[in-house]
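## Example record

The block below lists the input lines for one assembly entry, exactly as stored, with component labels intact.
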Amino acid sequence: MKRFILKRLGYSLISLCLLALTIFLFVRLTGDPTVLLVEPGASREDMAMVRQQLGLDRSLPVQFMAFVADMLRGDFGKSFYYRTPVLELYMSRLPSSLALAAAAMAFSLVIGIPSGIIAAVKVGKFGDNAGKVFALLGLSMPQFWVGLLLILFFSVYLGWLPSSGSGTIWHLIMPAFALGWYFAAAHMRITRSSMLEVLGSEYVKLARLKGLPEKRVIVKHALKNALIPVLTLAGINLVLMVNVAVVVETVFAWPGIGRLLYEGIAFRDFPVVQATVLLGGSMIVIVNLVVDVLYAVIDPRIRLGA
Amino acid sequence: MRRRLVTRAAVLASLLVVVLSAAPVAAAPEGQVTWGVHITLAPTWFDPAETPPLITPYMVMYAIHDAMAKAMPDNSMTPALAESWKASPDGKTYDFTLRKNVKFHDGSTMTAEDVKFSFERYRGAAAKSMKDRVAGIDVTGPLQVRFRLKEPWPDFLLFYTAASGAGWIVPKKYVEKVGEEQFKKAPVGAGPYKYVSFTPGVELVMEAFDQYWRKTPKVKRLVFRVIPDESTRMAALKRGEIDIVYSVRGELAEELQRTPGLTLKPTVIQAPQWVSMLDQWDPKSPWHDRRVRLAANLAIDRKAINQAITLGHSRLTGTIIPSTFEYAWPAPLYPFDPAQAKKLLAEAGYPNGFDAGEYHMDVAYANVQEAIADYLRQAGIKTTLRSMERAGFFAGYTAKKFKNLAYTASGAFGNAATRLETFVVKGGAYVYGSYPDIDGLFTEQAAELDRKKRQAILHRIQQLMHEKVMHIPIWELGFVNGHGPRIQESGLGLIPGHAYSAPYEDVSLKGK
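Predicted structure tokens for the full assembly:
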């Protein structure tokens, strides 16, 4: 087991190193950030000055070495745009992103899992078809459009909810719905397929043959096993909700990490993009590591196979 | 008894007369005005020392800080913290006299030391060009400062007061006490509003400074709320969550215009847009022929484009120099005359038009470009629109990789000379070719200290540009903003060429 964990830990570190190198090179492929930090038509001297201030006049290897050395000290550099430490920016946005992700996740699970169960139990019937339509809409409707419709209806027309911003629970409702719907649809679909697989398995057939009530078969025997892939996916989705809710956070002016990433990309703010992607990537790597270890604890074939 | 009553009545009446006839006391600031800001606010804008060459920081600087001189409604270089200044006859010394009893938000009084400190600490975009030319700065009295230049520099005042943050004054003692980093987190200035709080990506809150030298602000609290999405900003304005909205375009602007209680308030900013004919110096190119260049200008219905995209609120122009700039020459507008355009093309040897190749553009202005390309096509000039995101576009432009046509826009500060230096004269960052007569005149004006003579030379350059039909000028962009029903004075458009609300001490609410 110890060997398995060490091996997985090694893979995780290699993944993070590769991610650091990739993101460092990729952001630099997007072009010179200086042109976005000055007014069009600014003189060459102005641009050279800005480039020097940002340390972009140094060679790529020198920039990379500085980036890695700083990162190992927990310093992700200063934002080109904000001119403040990126980690400080990230941490100031994290609580908002966590709040939004938690609310959206709760919504997606509360809606996605029951509708997935109903769709699996009532295959081909109204419940199944309604669930499919719900999933199709959630997955296919652009989040910005859903967000704008919500704003127009609940804020402008009905006047019930604030149109944007943060601070109260009322501010959270619309962005959580807009973000959660997409993931609710995904959770519904995986719950449905997982339930269908489990409901067709031998032990469920046996439970039914034993004469157990259908409700008990579904809730006690089938659902428990069917939920494993759903919760695994939900874990990864939670990390995505925290880090890349770019569209929803922009439409609702929600001050989260997704918007920070969007601003970073829009202004070619290399340190912000690097830090956001790396910290988001680290979260995914850690979640995967924990899941792998838990699987290995549950299933000896995995750790022995490894 | 009666006499006492009469005496009392007389005393009361006198008091009443005194109270009523006394000079009106400035009303205390009241209420709150909230802006829906289109762009993310950056703390670097709170510190004049780091002002980047952008127009957006001035949105915040006009509230928290004050400058030696700055653009105000009546003048583009109005004395503010400097009461007056005088240049020596040789143009190498400038003496400034400061305004008395100007207070910073921490209660300290501004002195000449603060002015010297602010200049020396300035490290913004224009720092190199300023410090290369300034030999030194001397404090010659508590309220007197002298700048010594290495060589005469006719644009010194422009760069010191309007085109950089070097002339925006911060309190020396406070900055030294709290340090550079802390200053950005809790800036103290001499402007009409005090910093209260800033939440990155969310909002900036400021409160009226009742000791502001110019006047006591009318509104107690200003809030700049960041709302990046245009539709959301509009919804927030309709709901009354914000009072003033920045940057609303197209159909949303029309909606703002027709919504009862809301007022459209466009401002024309110092950002002309034009099409550059990059190959006009290549004898093999059709653009080498003046008649072709003129035909392209006559082929475009600028008025229709203006109406469709900015509801007619942009200012049509015949030049690339902003009309509000010093030394700008009012170039005549090109009329829309498609028949004459076709005739000129035929005379130039292109009766069936020609393929003008790629037309490079920044994707942010796609709506204008598509319209221009369509008008050119109708006249017979076929183009292929090559749309790029901003960074790629400017990288390609300055690397001189483009050919044929390129859409150009600039909101950079300066005067006619600084614009010509960047876009017209040999060696400029965006110059693909130049004319020797214009280059010669430009060198001549750079050494001319007599303002009138310099203006005459700069006007002549702009006339030559017009005669040669060097560009296809379109408009000075109308930045479409609006405000809600509570606002009496939004501050929008008060300062010519300024995009945002200012001066903030003039912003007021109805009935206050």
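Residues 2-21 of chain B form the longest helix (20 residues). DSSP finds 17 helices and 21 strands in chain B.
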